[in-house]
Amino acid sequence: YRFMVTQMMADKGIKKHGERAIEALMKEFAQLDDFDTFSPLDPTALCPKLKREALRIINLIKEKWDGLLKGRTCVDGRPQRKHISKEESTSPTCSNEA
Predict the structure, then answer these.
(1) How far apart are CA 82 and CA 46, in angstroms?
(2) Among 18, 33, 52, 63, which one is most buried in terms of CB atoms within 10 A?
(3) Burial level of 17, CB count in 10 A (0-12/13-18/19+)?
(4) H or E segment at 16?
């Protein structure tokens, strides 16, 4: 088996793959928009506390084994640990046990 790390930050992916990486990111952004994942907010209407607590997104480029590039967008949840309890931030998971 061959193993290779094929995920990279967007800026590195754009330097390596150029227009193909930009197209992959645009496709990911279009999908996020189609599913109404985010709703825009006017930053001037937010108080400083809400601006500090806003989570950033991380854009990644994933190179598949067949050479196809895919865009990935993830939320950087590290700052969330400071002001949201563990109970509020966990997601329910499925279990096989009854």
Answers:
(1) 19
(2) 63
(3) middle
(4) helix 10-17
Give kind and range of the element (H or E) at residue 94.
Answer: none
Q: What is the CA radius of gyration of the chain?
A: 17
End-to-end Cα spacing for the chain = 37
| DSSP E strand boundaries for 1-98 | 7-9, 56-63, 69-76
Per-residue pLDDT of 22-59, as tens digits, reads 999 999 999 999 999 888 889 899 999 888 888 889 99
Please state the pTM of the whole predicted model.
0.70
pLDDT tens per residue, range 66-90: 889 999 999 887 777 677 777 776 7
